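Entry 14. Structure prediction run on the chain below.
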Amino acid sequence: MGDTLLVADGDRHGGGEVALALDVGGTKIAGGLVTGDGAVLATDREDTPGARADADDVFQAVERLVRRLLALPDADRVEVVGIGSAAPVHLAEGAVSPVNIPAWRRFPLVDRVRSLLGGRRPVLLCGDGPAYAAAEHWLGAARGFDDAICLVVSTGVGGGLVSGGRLLPGPSGNAGHLGHVVVDVDGDPCACGSVGCVESIASGPSMVRWARDQGWSGPGTATAQDLAGAARSGEPIPVAAFDRAARALAAGIVSAAALTEVRVAVVGGGVAQAGPLLFAPLREHLAGYARLPFLRGLLVRAGEVSRDGGLLGAARVAFAARGDADPRRRSGSGEIRSREPRRGG
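Output returned:
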């Protein structure tokens, strides 16, 4: 559990509606108060209980976090609640089955949070990948683009789609999950049960595991950050691990572009913090795969939203569902549009 952080943000700290946002992951459960124009007024977190915890143990962490946020001065302005959860999610049921939270299988998270709040506020659910896409499209590197795929490359590989200026979560809420696009039909097993998924090649743990199999002798608890440090010093196996991950990501991104004609791919998350080690080979492989005329010119950008991106996205989805994504529109359409002119790529 971390201490609640109150964030001053100039004039944005003024009036207007506020969303209580939650970002549920396998390592931490983050929470915050977010205004309709994207100011994060406060953040807090709880560690996600471990694999031996039962469903109620995990929800009690959510409950502690929500109660602390509701005790803050700006909490009386909360009108909506947005939840971004690790996938898969089940939107129609308001339930979640995160791969990395084994205690929750079809856990009725929306109903439990709504009950915690006494049923007084709308509670909106989305996957963490679509939440990240909503945040980048609102305030980050996909801002101004009508068609985008946004990826989080970290301990897993998640993603979300924006099409025609609208978030496209799909019927179940899991559309855009590029991590489980198969890019190697004879590849390694993936945690999802398939083989050769992007995640089985490009996630941080997968990169480290592959490097070790090739003979890399990094520290016993090595992470993708350790691998990046070794690559920067010129060690060939870590360099090859980043190239291999970049190739898998490029294949997945081009596949997504062929299906949806996205014009920009935004890549964030811990692995993306390696910067040119990942992005240089990613752009090179992308150019090699994107050969058809309508695929050429596909852009790749580093993510721009802060570590609060999951909270921003969950809040954005909650406001949009009420037709309040842009306070100047209030059309009731639920569209999630950025505030700059359209760009085609």
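The first helix runs from residue 55 to 70.
Filed with the rest of this week's runs.
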